[in-house]
C-alpha cells in the first residue's frame, strides 16, 4: 500500500551552463509529493492500527529537512562563479555537487529523505517515489 504527503517551499537557483533564461538566478514555489510504501501496520487497538505511517511523522521528517535545509535558500552548484556574492551577503545557500535542475534536485531529495524514513521502521518503510513540481505545470518523478 502507498501513502502520499504533499509539502511546499520557496527556493532559488540557477542553471549556470544553460542557454536560456534559466542561467539567471531565479526562484520557484516548489511542491513535492512524497509517496511511501509498506504494509498496513498496527496491533488491534494500538494508536497506529490500520496505518502505514502517521501523516504527522511524514510531516515531521519532511518539514525538518525542507524548512531547515531548503526553504528560502539558494541552491548552487559548487563550481558556480556566483558563489562569492552569495557568501559575501550571508545568504542561506545549499551547496550541491550537481547542476540544480529539477531532475537532479528530485534525485538528491529522494536520496536524502529515503534513509530518514527507513530509520523509523527498520528499513521496512520505503520511500517509493517523489514528484517534484518546479512550477504548477512542470514536474519530475523519481523513485524505486
TrEMBL record:
Pfam families: PTPS. The keyword Lyase applies. It catalyses: 7,8-dihydroneopterin 3'-triphosphate + H2O = 6-carboxy-5,6,7,8-tetrahydropterin + triphosphate + acetaldehyde + 2 H(+). Gene3D superfamilies: 6-pyruvoyl tetrahydropterin synthase/QueD. Binds 1 zinc ion per subunit. Its cofactor is Zn(2+). This is 6-carboxy-5,6,7,8-tetrahydropterin synthase.
